Prior knowledge:
alpha+beta, 16 strands, Rossmann fold, BirA Bifunctional Protein, domain 2, five-stranded mixed beta sheet
Amino acid sequence: MEAIQVLKGMRDLLPEQTAWWQRMERELAGVLDRFGYQELRTPLLEPTALFKRSIGEATDIVEKEMYTFQDLDGSSVTLRPEGTASAVRAYLENFTWKKEPISRWYYLGTMFRHEKPQKGRYRMFSQVGAELLGAAEPAADVELIDLAVECVRAVGLSEATLELNSLGCPACRPAYRERLVAYLRVQRSALCEPCQRRLETNPLRVLDCKVEGCQKVAEEAPRILDFLGPECLSHLEAVRAGLESMGHAYRLNHRMVRGLDYYSRTTFELLTGGLGAQSAVAGGGRYDGLVAQLGGPEIPAVGFAAGLDRILLRLAELREPPQGPPIIFVASQGEAGWRAALPLVQRLRRAGHKVLSDVRAGSLKAQLKRADKDRARLVLVLGEEEIQAGAVSVKDMAAPEGAQDKQVRCALADLDRLLGEKLGGVK
Ligand code: AMP
């Protein structure tokens, strides 16, 4: 029978990979907690209308990348392609805005987009994201950007560079959009086919098209930064000043427009090397209109999301694999040895040690081999002699061959002290 395979663009994370994920998730949770952000968990499945209304009908995500299907009751549901829409839905549905003036939330989880898979781009991927709801001040933008930088740094990507832009607001963007469309219409024949369409539906997206012809056109295009009204301009200046006072270097990139419609004013991205076309590891910005757009009051907000799969791809080139706690291997001889080993294994695990033993019947020699393969730090041997003496032999796998303390006999009652000495209290 033909074997069944994983779906295209999706993958298994086997234990040697999940160890990297677990370390990264711990480090991220630490940073987010230190910034005062609390974790939000929302369903993977949402009403399709949520994403259509927030991300925008004319975006790539909504037009062609959503996993949308009809539920058994006939309603249209979608596997979430990003986290902000769900966060805002939960914020409104739970009346969080009535209970606290400022909310600091983060999420970590799986997203789905039906994209063309390639290195660093999958159909099922993970993001960590943070949202700060309730503040329009530039200080909120600065906090969020700083948080994104610190998240990426904490997991080991200190090389990431920051790009910054402002998309203006509903007061100043229309004039820019008009000028941009007029310019793009003249250049129409030089644009790729999707951009010829985007020109009418979502002209800003033409600016970050990766096709060479479009990039040439975009280089000469009018710049949004020249069209910002005085308030958007002073907002941008304040964000820049804040970032500068924290020592964050950045590059202004007037062509960074992001793929989602809900952004206003500040947008930013963090980029890293080694990932080719998929160099963006995090992106975000201000979305002052979104809460109202989803049926709530006018509440300003700012957020970011970082792609964890991509970050890990790069980290595998930069960091050592994670090291687990020291392993204690308990080896025993015969039925009596096994029965004596069981309570010992249990006691050590309850005391917080990582303890392995072989569940297959085998010689002491085979078990010692196993312990070596498992990279045990200490091997405790319970042979006939040891059981008689109420003791255990402790083999220190890190000590050099022939060293005096390579193997010592230790009374069971004295074992905790010896383990503490050998492992320096590390569990
Ligand atoms: P976005 O939600 O599109 O703003 O993306 C934020 C970050 O998520 C990007 O910078 C990427 O690092 C990551 N990301 C987006 N789409 C994918 C994907 N298909 N596969 C892997 N990572 C992705």
